[in-house]
Structure formats: C-alpha cells, structure tokens
Design a protein that fits this description.
- Helix content is 32%, strand content 28%.
- With 286 residues, it is α/β, with parallel strands linked by helices.
- The protein has two domains: 2-113 and 252-271, 3-Layer(aba) Sandwich (Rossmann fold), CATH 3.40.50.720; 114-248 and 279-283, 2-Layer Sandwich (Dihydrodipicolinate Reductase, domain 2).
- The chain has an eight-stranded mixed β-sheet, with helices on one face. Strands 3-2-1-4-5-6 form a six-stranded parallel β-sheet, sandwiched between helices.
- Helix 3 links the parallel strand 4 (57-60) and strand 5.
- The termini are far apart.
Length: 286
C-alpha cells in the first residue's frame, strides 16, 4: 500500500511514526514545503509531483486553516483521504468539502483518533450491557504554542463532543458553551460545555491553562460506574481496573480503520464528514 502524508509538524510526525510501524504500508511519500528535516522516505517539494505517485490514500495533517484548499486539490487525484481534526474552520467549509467529496467520489475519514483509544473501544463494548445516565469529561493541557489558528474548543473540545456521540450513539438535543480568553482575544483557551442527549446529561471541561495534561472521562451507568484515563489507557469499572480489549495506539488503530475504508469503502468506527459537521454545528450553535 502506498500512502501519502501532507504536513510534517508534530501531528504529521506522529502519523509518520505509526505508518512506519504498519506492515500494510509498503511505501510512504511525504509533502511539506516548509520542512527541513531528513527522512528515509521521499520528501516532495512539488505538490503535483507528490500527487502523481499513484497513492492509495493520503493523510492531511496540516494546520486547520489549510485543510480546505489542500483537500480540494487532493480530491481531484486521490480517492481515499484522511483529514486531521478539526476538519475545517467552520460549517461552510465542511459543507463545501462534503459537496466536493461527493462530486469527486472520494471516501473521506476525519481524524477523531480518540475513538480508537483502547480504553474507549473497551468501554464501548462494556456499555452494550448498560445504559448511560451521565458523562463528565476533563481534557486540559498547558498552552500550546504550536497552535495559532483555532481555540481550545476546536483543538480539544471537538474530540469530546464527538466521543459523547460515539459512545452514546445518540444525537445532541441541547448544548450550552461558556468560553474565556486569557491568552488571545480571538481564540478561547477555557471552555465549559453542557450537553443533553435524550436523558443523558454531559459536562465537558476543556482548558489550555493547566500545568500538566489530564484526559479523564467519568460515566455513570444504571449498572456500573466507569472511569477512563485516556492518557495512560486505563479503564476502571466500579473502581476495579479492567484489562483493555484492544492494544494498538489510537493513531495506529485509526490508520487500520482508514485502510479498511480504502479497501472496502466503509468502516464503522472511523469518523466521517457528517460526524465532523455535527460537532461543528454544536460549536457554532446551529
């Protein structure tokens, strides 16, 4: 399988590391006109030359504000594309990507990789025998100097809004978002999100103002209480640690799902443009 990777910043290099581990990937082509690093793979400086490599699929891991322009160019040549989250800057851009992907008959996955966290996948299996009452999520980090085109909601919050839909398999009926700005007048760095999905109540705290990283989920079910440490891949049910049913890293598992999409045209766990649109509608209050 020949895979192309666009963008070699922090997230792009994470993708590259997992692609190199995957035995299904026989050839990797890279494109980033700003990257000066050395790689053992072909690093193309010309975008058209990159797209002429008969690639089976392409991963887009560039800053969010570039996704639309890059994706529209890729769609014309490549028919299987995985685009990092957030998919685009706003609803209008997502709708345009959706329209063009249908016109060009492109299969598109969106990089909500927390869906593939082994604790999340294990929890999803356990919840088949339970009913969710409430969800509390805390995802906080130090301020990221590398991000300069979106706020904490588009960086962190999108993961959690998507996870709530993914785990509950229900649609969000009510949403309220409070934001604060401590570092930048345009981009929020603190957010509290309240959601309702039928009878499920959800509270999400996203922050770029912490001194360390915390990625926790607590779920009250009718039968059990669940606690997840997403950072350390740990799941507790009624305070007892439970072995994960899955072993791969989130990105590796997301790539496997993308390859399934590439080969079969469908994949049940990989996020779609429609999933990204549903998340963006919550962020924009639609």
């Amino acid at each position: 399988m020949k895979i192309g990777l666009i963008g070699l910043g922090k997230m792009g290099k994470n993708h590259l590391r997992e692609l190199e581990r995957n035995l299904k990937v026989k050839e990797i082509h890279l494109y980033d006109p700003f990257c000066k690093d050395e790689f053992k793979h072909s690093l193309h400086k010309n975008f058209d030359d990159f797209l002429r490599q008969n690639l089976d699929g392409v991963i887009v891991a560039t800053p969010t504000h570039t996704h639309l322009d890059i994706a529209l160019k890729v769609f014309a040549r490549i028919k299987n594309v995985l685009i990092e989250k957030p998919l685009a800057l706003n609803i209008d851009e997502i709708l345009l990507l959706q329209k063009k992907s249908l016109e060009d008959k492109v299969s598109v996955g969106v990089g909500f990789c927390e869906r593939f966290n082994p604790t999340v996948l294990t929890l999803k299996e356990k919840l088949k025998d339970d009913e969710i009452i409430s969800i509390n999520i805390q995802r906080i980090s130090p301020y990221p100097q590398r991000i300069n085109d979106v706020g904490v909601l588009s960086d962190l919050g999108v993961h959690d809004i998507d996870l709530v839909r993914f785990l509950s398999q229900k649609q969000i009926s009510k949403a309220n978002i409070n934001k604060a700005y401590h570092h930048h007048e345009k981009f929020e760095d603190e957010a509290m999100i309240s959601l309702k999905l039928e009878d499920i109540l959800v509270s999400i705290h996203n922050s770029w103002n912490a001194k360390h990283i915390i990625r926790n989920i607590k779920i009250l079910g009718k039968n059990h209480t669940y606690e997840l440490d997403l950072k350390n891949f740990e799941l507790f049910i009624n305070m007892q640690k439970i072995p994960n049913l899955y072993e791969n890293s989130p990105l590796y598992a997301e790539h496997e799902a993308f390859f399934e999409l590439l080969q079969n045209g469908v994949c049940k766990n990989l996020a779609s443009i429609e999933d990204a649109l549903k998340v963006q509608e919550i962020l924009e209050g639609v």
